[in-house]
Specification:
This protein has 199 residues and is an all-alpha fold. Helix 3 crosses helix 5, helix 6 packs parallel to helix 10 and helix 7 packs across helix 8. It starts with a helix and ends in a 6-residue tail after the last helix.
Length: 199
Amino acid sequence: MIQYKLVEDLVFQKLHNESSGHDYYHAQRVLKNALEISSIYDINIDVIKASCLIHDLIDHKLDDKHKSSTKQIKEVLIQSQFSTEEITHIFDIIENISYSKGNIPSSLEGKIVQDADRLDALGAIGIARTFAFGGKKGRLIYGPKDDKANSVAHFYDKLFKLTELMNTHEAKELAVKRTAFMEEFILELQKETNYNTLK
């Protein structure tokens, strides 16, 4: 029987005080999203759960304090009773789901985890995470239209594109609703700041 507590303990230990939006609670939300998306599919739910929980532990966006080594993660997965094949599958997923790499995981489990992670970049929580990450990186909230190094630019560069990149119909339906909420927010922000007229 899989010992999820060992996996959760590692994630909590590493990410409970991470402030860029890739924290322990993000991992839990990604897991919740994945369970909602995957309810109608015949998949390895253990692989999905573990992948959701640990997916950011190797993310290049995190500093060394919040990352784990591949060796440490594998040791915890072995202790948690995952098989060699499942561990290989989990690493194939977490190494291929990031937006920046531009990959689509080969397995259905990987596609579901990728969708679940991307859903957490959308909606109200997506807005909160965008500005948390921007602040952590020293970015302005907004700037001139041709300035890509601010948080509002991130909505146009990435977030508004995610709906069309979803792998599953279930995730796409959820993404449409969350994106509409973000679009309303950006419209209101434009009214309040006129950021799109800045030089």
